[in-house]
Please model this.
Amino acid sequence: MVTDQANSATIAYFSMEVGLEPSVPTYSGGLGVLAGDMLRAAADASAPMVGVTLLHRKGYFRQYLDRNGRQSESAVEWNPADRMDPQDVRAFVPVQGRQVEIRAWCYKVRGVTGYSLPVYFLDTDLPENEEQDRRLTDHLYGGDALYRLKQEVVLGMGGVAMLRALGHYSLQVYHMNEGHSALLALSLLEEQAGERRLTGVVPEDVDAVRRRCVFTTHTPVPAGHDRFPMDMVRDVIGEEHADALTSQGCVPDDTLNMTHLGLFFSRYVNGVSMRHEEVSRDMFPNHPINSITNGMHAATWASDSFREVFDRHISSWRVDNRYLRHAARIPLEEVQQAHRLSKQALFDHIEQKTGTRLDPGIMTIGFARRAATYKRADLLFTDRERLNRIAETTGSMQFVFAGKAHPRDEMGKDVIRRIFEASTALSDSIKIVYLQDYDMTLGRLLTSGVDLWLNTPQRPQEASGTSGMKAALNGVPSLSILDGWWVEGWVEGVTGWAIGDNWNGEEDPQQESALLYDKLEYVVLPMFYSRPGAYAEVMRRAIELNGSYFTAQRMLSQYLQNAYRAPHLTAIAGGGI
Model:
C-alpha cells in the first residue's frame, strides 16, 4: 500500500546492521550503532529518509566468558513482533535461480518533535522459501562467503525491490553505509535500462544511477572489504546480472569487490573522519574521497544524571546539540556530582553481574570496543611491572573492559584471554574487570561511568570511533592514540590527552606503551588525585568542545548539505539541524 510517507521519502539509507535499542539485537558494534544514531538524528530533523537493513533473527551472538577469559557464543533469541510491525507486501530477489520471497518488518524511530521515521528489516524466513533461503536473514556476519554474498543480494537488490513494493517511488538518494548493500546499484541500473534490460545498458544509464548513489566507507584496511569470486557471483545472481557488472568494468581480476562496486556507482564518497579520508584516498586513488566525521546521538548516549543537568542548564540541547557549547555555564560541582551518579550506576551493574565491588574513589579507566587485534586492548599490559609501580607510587587505578571477538577470530579471542591473565597477575595492586556480552546498554553505562576513556588502536586502522565521543558527552576525557576522530577532537590537557604527538610516522608499540605509562604517571593520575578541580575542568571542556560537535545531528547536517544535495534537503540542513 502506498502511504503519504512513502510518497514523500527521498533518501534510502542502507546498512547491513542497525543498532536501535538493546532489545533489537541487529548490530555487532560501531557500524550498526552509528547507523542507528544516523537514523535517530534523521527522525529528530524530520528528514525524508527510510532505513533498510536485514532482520538477523538470531542476532550477532551472545557472548560468554569463563574464568580464564575463554569466549563461547550462542544465538540471541528475540521476537521481532515485540518491537516491529510486519508489512503486508512481498518482494522477490533471484538467488541461485530461485525467486526468494522477502517480507519487511517496520520499526518506527520517533524523533524529538514526534516525527516517525520507518526502518525496514528484511526477512526471508517464510514458508514459501526453501529452508536454506529461510536462514539467509538469521545471523549477522555469520556463515561462509556464499552465505554472506546471498545476504548482500537480499540487502541490496532485495532492499530496492521491497522499497518499490512498499510504494517508495520518490527516492532520489540511495546511501550505502559500507559495501554490503552495493548490489542495489545493479537493481537501479536494471530499472534505468527498462525494456532494454541489462544487456542494453548505455553510459547514460550508468550516469543516472551514479547521480542517485552515495557511498560511505568505514574500513581503512584492504582485508575489511568483502570480495567474492565471479564464479560464485554468477551462480548466485545469474548470468545477465553478472555480465552487467563485468561489462561496466567494475569487476577487476575476476573478483567482485563490494567496496569498489559502491565506489564505481556513486557520485559522492566519504570516509568517516579527516584522517580516514587521507587513508581512503591512498587506498582508492582513482576516486574522489571526502570526509564526514561520525557522531553520536546525544539524547541517546547522555547518562540519566547528565540529561538532568543539561535539561536544567541548557534547555534546548536535545533539539539543537550545538547548545552543548554552553556547558561552560554548568558549575563544576554539578559536573562532578552527575559523574559520581553515573559512576555509581556502572559500579552497581558490575557488582550485580560479577560480584566485584569497585571503589568509587579510585581512578577508573574504561576500554570497550570490538575485541580485534588492531584495537590493541592489551597494549596497556606491555610492561606490567611499570603499571604496577605507577599504581603503588602515583595513584591507584582500576580498569573496566568489554568487547566481543568474532566467533571465528581466534586472535581476537586471544586478546581477551591475555587481559584475564593480566588481571590475575596484577590482582594484588590493580582491579581489572572484563564484562561479557557488550551491548548498547553496557556501552552507555561504561562511556558515562568511568573517569578516563582509553583508546589504543594501531594507526591508521581506526577509521573514526564513536565511543570516545559518547564519553566526552558525559564529561569523560580520553587518553588515546592519535587516530580516527581523536585527531580532530584532541586538545592536549583540555579535552583529554594524546599518546604520542603525531598521527603519521612508523608504528612502535614499545614506545607507544611507554608514552601511555608516562601520561598516566606524570599527568593524568596526579591531576585526578591532587587537583580534582582541574580534572573537573577537563571534564567540562570535553562536553563543551567535543560533546557539542561530534554529534549525529552535525553528521546528518553534513550529509544533507554535502552528500545528498537535493535543494529541499539542503534547506533542511540550513535550518539549524
User: Anything to note?
Assistant: Residues 567-577 have pLDDT under 50 and may be disordered. The longest strand covers residues 98-110. The longest helix spans residues 332-354.
